Amino acid sequence: MISIKRLRPTQFAVGMYEVQKRIDKFRDMSKKEFIKYLKAKPIGVFYSMSRDAVPCPPCCFPKK
Fold it and tell me: How many CB atoms lie within 10 A of CB 34?
């Protein structure tokens, strides 16, 4: 039997792997390359009535 403390959610593990992969990729980029990367992948944001910045859901973006 496996202790519940040893279990790890797959989604979290895969997500953390992706995060670490991107961190490594960004560290290898020059500042100029990183800025170019960010400009190519904008994140939609809108302001709520309370003036809080809220990310737009993916359905707000037009399909390419």
Answer: 14
6: tokens are 């040893």
Task: Give pTM, 2 decimals.
Answer: 0.48
Is 4 inside any structural domain?
no
Domain that holds residue 45: 10-60
Q: Examine residue 31 and state whether it is found in any structural domain, yes or no.
A: yes
Model pLDDT for residues 37-52, shown as the tens digit of each residue: 988 887 777 777 777 7
Structural domains counted in the chain: 1
Q: 25 in the Ramachandran plot: left (φ > 0), alpha (ψ -120 to 50) or beta? A: alpha
Q: 47: part of which helix (H) or strand (E)?
A: strand 45-47
